[in-house]
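As a warm-up, study this chain.
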Amino acid sequence: MTAVTREDVVAAAGRISGLVLRTPVLEVAPGLFLKLELLQHSGSFKVRGAFNRILSAGTLPDAGVIAASGGNHGLAVAYAARQLGVRAEIFVPEVTSPVKVTGLAALGAHITQTGAIYAEAAEAAAKRAAETGALAVHAYDQPEVIAGQGTTGLEIMEQTGGVDTVLVAVGGGGFAAGITLGTAGSGGSDGGGEGDGGSDGGPRIVAVEPERIPTLHAALREGRPVQVGVSGVGADALGASRLGGLAYDVLSGPRVLSVLVPDEAIVAARQVLWERHRVVAEHAGAAAYAALLSGAYERGEGERVAVVVCGSNTDPATLTAP
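Now compare it with the structure written out below.
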């Protein structure tokens, strides 16, 4: 399995420049930042990895690209494919929200909805890719995808002037692994906070998962990626049943702290994002913020913290008016 490096992340930033947005950072309290990656093209960070994977491949097959997704990755691959003028075939499980399926259709993707969870859709997509020769764009366990997602970490450190800690949601682990690499060697902040994550000088990474989908938590406990159950409010976006092997190699390092949050905390955090900041996030997009609001992660005195709000593909009507 090919290791991913910070140099790969820097190269990805150059490769996808001009194709992705430099999403804004909102300082909601002194030293507390929201990285609004939900404002990215296609509604999530996933487009970064999709572009980097496709552009790294060189000449593409006539069959185009293929991906399996709970929704957000599929939207990202479909968006990137449309921008680059190639065919996209997307497999999604039955749990995928209607909002995301409608978005895929609007982007011109060829959609197959099959299987109860992401893993079953991924199996069907792999079979189809073998038949057609289409370029497979994995949701989280490819070096180019992880490197692309890591460009978010580069932006966080540049836009905030450095932080001690980054909170990020985990599904298959590609985003958190990319951010860990993208912030490595940055030296953190100079604000005197308590977030010294490791010997490379980068910030601590707080990897946040729903209690009902603990892929990283279980992998760290067992010493390897293992199968977990998938259910709850974050299942359509954080619904990987096993952590990616590449992500495990990165996230098992000393800078990473794994925490779990209940669905109730995620639902509450999503509502708070709307009421306080007028940010419309999907449940998975609010998971990292849930760790802070619920006390699953307690911010230290003077600690500079960035929380990544990573997805907006949701029905705004499900939010309660303040």
